[in-house]
Specification:
The structure holds two protein chains of two kinds.
Chain A (H helix, E strand, L loop, with lengths): L34 H4 L5 H13 L7 H6 L5 H22 L6 H14 L9 H19 L4 E3 L9 E6 L8 H9 L12 E6 L22 E6 L8 H5 L5 E3 L5 E3 L9 H5 L5 E3 L14 E3 L11 E3 L4 H4 L6 H5 L5 E5 L6 H8 L15 E4 L2
Parallel strand pairs in A: 1-8, 2-11
Antiparallel strand pairs in A: 2-10, 3-4, 5-6, 7-9
Chain B lengths: L1 H18 L3 H27 L14 H14 L2 H9 L6 H25 L22 H28 L6 H27 L12 H27 L6 H31 L6 H8 L8 H19 L1 H5 L1 H27 L15 H29 L7 H5 L1
Helix pairs in contact in B: 2-14, 3-5, 3-7, 3-8, 3-13, 4-5, 4-7, 5-6, 5-8, 5-14, 6-7, 7-8, 8-9, 8-13, 9-11, 11-13
Classes of the chains: A alpha/beta, B mainly alpha.
Chain lengths: 375, 410
């Protein structure tokens, strides 16, 4: 359904006001039941859209010609499609007129064009999401001769992911850090790490200033305790608002994600994050071919390019399949707890209900979904 | 049809003007071209390797480019200090200077946009920001506000002088009712561009050094000191190299503006320092780092301790009317004030915002050679654009460039 707006939002009121889509319980086939006065505000096109949606829904049964040429689209869509098709056409011509190129490189050129001019993943329909994922998998196959699997699985209903960290248990082994790097295909050259483990002195409290987040000695060190930080997947994330192109957003299951292909690399989100949760690809990320995790998600651990942001996604490629993130699985002490906040029987809910939990920098109003507690 | 002919002839005439000149002029333009080429070479390296060739890191993620951008928005906004009295208050005095001021604003805005593009990780996908084909996160993101106000201001500052010069070129009077509304709009717009740019930083709760209500007003005060100071210097140069007449009275009035703005700026600086150091909190650490260094890390000390004395010295000297009226001292004051504010509002504002980091980590920042090269290249671009604009404008204002009917009809 076209509930989600596909253009910039001028929504000055409450953010969650959804456009009525004519799916209410009443039997009025012409749209929503209280459509009397409201209908006045719909213009002809919107009304037509709503009416069609209500009567035949998404599957509009048209013949082939109509499906291609009689598509409802606004000016933006039309312009975008026109530009894209022109450019694709140009690309196709340049690749098909060349006699030297083999079909593979023609296909590669075609994929590159479509990838360059595709839209924002956040605004794609499920069909478009699948197409881009297919293109990316095919492109990888064409370039390396190897297959990867990439998912575009959406958030499931009644799921809201949360995380808890047991400060008493963490011993600073950093197994979570290396598991994260391997799972998420992070750049090996710059040693990018989403997780930072802060080594703090006993008796000094949570004194981040004097903590060391880059230690190279045997752990647990005498007289120290450890605390991990990463992206906290805030419920009110400051990084999302500041992005000029909506390349980062909060998914329905609470994950704050990035469309790496839509990001323009201005790093405003990095300045806005109070938790050091975001990383930038200052150069082309490099992962040795044999170390690549081929089990990928579009919003998660697929290969990034230079000049874009990335961050922890609670391993979206794992968590949406019902698995724990790599850091949780790798932790040898059980300090890390992950789960669905909406499931009353989950471990995370037990922790929140029975432990004295706290969050970092709560005064900023970011509402992190990452809690700390002690035994 | 006639309009097209006039425009064609104007373009040809101005091309003719900007390619001819004294030896000094050619040397100057050649020098700028060389610096621009070096800058482009540096930028090509940056495009190829990524932003890793700059001194920026995950800890300090904005550096020299954004510093210069911030400062130049102020310079651009300052054109308003000349526009307002000339067009709105009917102070004929400024009329000569205002075209120069607006030319300066155009050059500064072009530099701003160039700095922003240089700072982008993916300049090839910047079309994502174009409303209509991309996604423009308005009004949530202050950056989109900035895109709107900067481009709008650029448009205003190109169209007003263009209209006036275009009329003068045809030996006609520019019609007041056409350009005055635009000029009035640009007055508000100039305050807008600087305030919005300040809000870009001010709205980040993650960075206490910026998240401070005085940031916006202080941006305005420092801009209205540094911008007109630059205009005075430029007018002085134009006065000595061309036949363009700029009366002493004009420069005297601009100097007055600089003085008042610099005084207000100093008061705000004192207020800021008082807040940070009288009852220092956890949030004052950035200021401590900037002024005194933290845990032995003190890369910014030489910068800020150059800026503060220069700033104070210039303000004090300008305050005395006798000193201000002496051109040599005035130019000197304007120069040191310009440098002081460039440091304070660029480096001294952007870098400490990231230090210490969100968890207290102190990672210092120093620009690399490539970054400096690109920066100098963009400054040269600005100077180049300004020289072209100023030379054409002066040519038209002096009556050297005029539309000749026979030229196009024959």
């Amino acid at each position: 359904m076209s509930n989600r707006k596909k253009w910039f939002s001028l929504d000055l009121g409450p953010h969650n006001k959804k456009k009525s889509s004519g799916n209410c319980g009443c039997s009025n086939p012409q749209g929503s039941c209280d459509s009397g006065p409201e209908k006045e505000e719909l213009n002809a096109e919107e009304f037509y859209e709503a009416a069609i949606n209500a009567s035949i829904g998404d599957e509009r049964r048209k013949d082939g010609f109509d499906q291609v040429f009689d598509v409802q689209m606004d000016r933006r869509d039309a312009f975008k499609k026109l530009t894209a098709s022109l450019l694709i056409g140009a690309g196709a011509i340049s690749s098909c007129t060349s006699v030297i190129q083999d079909p593979d490189s023609k296909e590669k050129a075609q994929i590159d064009w479509e990838e360059q001019f595709k839209g924002n993943y956040k605004l794609m329909t499920d069909e478009e999401k699948k197409q881009t994922v297919d293109r990316l998998m095919r492109s990888y196959e064409l370039r390396t001769g190897k297959n990867i699997s990439m998912s575009s699985k959406n958030a499931e209903e009644d799921v809201l992911f949360g995380y808890a960290f047991n400060i008493s248990k963490c011993q600073g082994y950093m197994d979570c850090v290396s598991a994260c790097v391997e799972e998420n295909n992070q750049d090996r050259k710059s040693q990018m790490q989403y997780i930072r483990i802060h080594e703090m002195k006993d008796g000094k409290g949570f004194n981040f200033n004097e903590a060391d987040d880059n230690y190279y000695h045997e752990v647990p060190a005498e007289g120290h305790f450890y605390m991990g930080t990463q992206c906290f997947h805030c419920d009110n994330p400051p990084c999302v608002d500041v992005c000029p192109v909506q390349a980062t957003w909060k998914e329905e299951d609470g994950l704050v994600v990035i469309d790496y292909d839509w990001c323009v690399g201005c790093r405003y989100c990095m300045a806005a994050c109070p938790y050091d949760g975001r990383r930038f690809n200052w150069s082309k990320p490099e992962v040795p071919e044999n170390e690549i995790n081929k089990n990928q998600h579009y919003l998660g651990n697929r290969m990034r390019k230079k000049g874009v942001m990335e961050k922890c996604t609670f391993c979206v490629q794992r968590s949406r399949k019902g698995k724990n993130p790599a850091c949780v699985e790798a932790c040898p002490t059980g300090a890390r707890i992950f789960g669905n906040l909406l499931d009353p029987n989950s471990t995370i809910r037990w922790v929140l209900e029975n432990k004295k939990v706290f969050r970092l920098k709560e005064d900023l109003g970011t509402e992190p979904k990452f809690w700390y507690f002690m035994d | 049809m006639r309009q097209l002919k006039v425009i064609r002839s104007l373009v040809i005439d101005s091309l003719d003007t900007i390619t001819k000149g004294s030896k000094k002029y050619h040397l100057w333009m050649g020098f700028l071209t060389l610096v621009m080429l070096i800058g482009m070479y540096c930028y090509s390296i940056q495009l190829d390797e990524g932003l890793s060739v700059t001194g920026m890191t995950d800890r300090v993620s904005w550096g020299l480019y954004i510093s210069n951008f911030t400062f130049l928005v102020g310079v651009a906004a300052a054109a308003v200090m000349l526009v307002m009295p000339t067009y709105v208050l009917k102070d004929i005095d400024f009329k000569q200077a205002v075209l120069i001021g607006e030319g300066l604003a155009v050059a500064a805005l072009i530099m701003c946009l160039a700095f922003v593009v240089a700072d982008m990780g993916g300049p090839s996908v910047l079309w994502h920001m174009i409303p209509g084909i991309g996604v423009f996160n308005f009004p949530n993101s202050m950056l989109t506000w900035d895109v709107i106000v900067l481009n709008g201001y650029l448009f205003i500052n190109i169209s007003i002088p263009f209209y006036i010069l275009y009329r003068h070129y045809q030996n006609k009077e520019a019609k007041k009712r056409i350009y005055v509304p635009g000029a009035v709009l640009s007055v508000f717009w100039a305050v807008g561009i600087h305030l919005v740019t300040a809000f870009l930083y001010q709205g980040l709760q993650a960075r206490p050094f910026w998240n401070n209500a005085l940031l916006g007003p202080r941006f305005l005060a420092s801009a209205f000191a540094a911008g007109p100071a630059l205009i005075i210097l430029v007018l002085a140069i134009i006065r000595s190299f061309t036949a363009f007449k700029i009366p002493d009275k004009t420069i005297g009035k601009i100097a007055m503006i600089v003085t008042v703005a610099a005084q207000i700026n100093l008061i705000m600086l004192v207020s800021e320092l008082f807040k940070e150091f009288y009852a220092p909190t956890h949030h004052s650490e950035s200021a401590y780092y900037l002024f005194f260094g933290l845990h032995g890390k003190n890369a910014l000390l030489p910068w800020i301790w150059t800026a503060i004395p220069l700033n104070v010295l210039a303000t004090v000297m300008l305050t005395f009317g006798k000193l201000r009226k002496n051109p040599k001292i005035l130019y000197f004051c304007c120069f040191i004030l310009f440098v002081a504010i460039w440091i304070e509002k660029g480096f001294g504002l952007i870098v400490p915002g990231f230090i210490p980091g969100p968890y207290g980590k102190i990672a210092e920042y120093l620009p690399t050679g490539i970054e400096v090269g690109v920066t100098l290249g963009i400054w040269a671009l600005g100077a180049f654009v300004f020289t072209i604009l100023a030379k054409t404008a002066i040519g038209i204002e002096l009556g050297e460039l005029r539309f000749k009917l026979k030229q196009t009809e024959s």
